[in-house]
Write a structure and sequence with these properties.
Elements: E1 2-8, H1 17-20, E2 23-30, E3 37-46, H2 49-55, E4 65-66, E5 70-78, E6 90-93, H3 103-106, H4 114-122, E7 132-134, E8 137-141, E9 151-155, E10 159-161, H5 168-188, E11 197-200, H6 204-215, E12 221-225, H7 228-236, E13 241-244, H8 250-257, E14 262-267, H9 272-280, E15 282-290, H10 304-309, E16 313-316, H11 324-336, E17 346-350, H12 355-363, E18 369-373
Parallel strand pairs: 4-8, 11-12, 11-14, 12-13, 14-15, 15-16, 17-18
Antiparallel strand pairs: 1-2, 1-4, 2-7, 3-5, 3-9, 3-18, 5-6, 6-10, 7-8
Helix pairs in contact: 5-6, 5-11
Amino acid sequence: MKVRAAVLREIGRPGPYAETRPLVIEDVELDAPGEGEVLVRIRAAGLCHSDLSVIDGNRPRPMPMVLGHEAAGVVEDVGHGVAGLGRGDHVVASFVPSCGHCIPCATGRPALCEPGFQANSAGTLLSGGRRLHDGHGTVNHHLGVSGFAQYAVLAANSLVRVPAELPFAEAALFGCAVITGVGAVVNTARMPHGASAAVVGLGGVGLAALLAARMLDAEQIVAVDMNERKLAVARELGATATVNAAHPDAVEQIRELTRGGVACAFEMAGSTRALELAYRITARGGTTVSAGLPHPQQQFSIPQVSLVAEERTLKGSYLGSCVPARDIPHYIDWYRAGRLPVDRLLSERLRLDDINAAFDRLAAGETIRQVVEVD
């Protein structure tokens, strides 16, 4: 079948993207789902820095590629061997497909699925196949999703069924921003109720982490960013204090506010400077979690003695250390109960044709979470 999609054909094209148009909206051919795969009509897809990092070249991927990894939609068809999903089901995509059999999957860590990682790196589905084509040949899948399109074929293990009454634009957020940010707090850090926290980097993922800290009745929540508008949003969402990271005394300000540092610091900006700041504002005995994705060549160093003498913990968090089939329904329940108001992260709704200008806004830090609503 032919579908309209946002296709990236080369990485590193300079901005402004509204003029250079790295994403081309065009018709591509989409094959029927194979064994263990599902055809989904995409209804909403969020714009994330992980998409932007492919466009600007910070996360190289095979080209050409249909971008988009944070998506929600409706099941239209299922391939042979698919159980638990049927036509008409509402689903959210997870950007790491889980094979269920490798050692990480078998030990409850599907975010580290080995075949899933290999497939995502190669631009294929979990099966190793590609279901997208154009007049020149095959087109690659982005993180097994390729949600900037009218329809997508995904591995069934990339999908989680969600309540039909959940609006699609809000449902999409659970596939990346929420699962990554909330999961970093709840799963990776295992942050105790009432502990103090700091969030460095206030995009959709960072603000989702802030909401999780608030849900856990954090004693203090310090929000850190270089964008004053985002700091204002953080105050609206429950931050007890905000600090501009560009200030030369930012670390000292935070340590003074928190009487020596926070119990849990979360780096969500994807830069070594942000991670260095997060580590420096973590208290003795505290935990620093990094969920941002910097350029692969960036390096980070710390005083080794601090890990021992101060009993520090430094952890990475991918996909929020989540089990999507378990955690996404829990997070949706928290949202519907009013404990996790993720709808407040939704800043703009747009059409697929407006996607390049939307990435300009994302690159400039002018927005929280934009969502393409696909007809």
